[in-house]
Amino acid sequence: LDGTELGVTEPGDDTDETVGNFVPDADPSTTTSPVSPDTDNGGVNDGDEDLNRNGRVDDGETDPNDASDDMPGNDDDNIDDDDAEVTFTIEGGALKCATTAPHQPAAPTGALWTLLLLGAALIIRRRR
Is 85 helix (H, G, I), strand (E, B) or coil? Predict the structure, then answer.
């Protein structure tokens, strides 16, 4: 989606629009770096600031060109942003974005393995 980062509003002649990769920039007056994941060096990646990736700062988003509004993991949604799962889908030619809390395992992985190993040891011991 580098076209959005560069303020592109119309696809180039060699762009295959049927693939769904072109997203016109909704605010071409603002651009971000296509080579730096965090243009403003504020600690939050540009894609995490422009959640719907339309190139415009919408309600609930932070500005990828303003480091002062970057507060990693502290955006009032009660989801730690480092653990959040973001999904993108294309519906009717529009890019849709959803953020959800990650799946929480019932038991820590280490504890689960410990219980399995103890159970296996008991079974082996009983068979002797």
Answer: strand
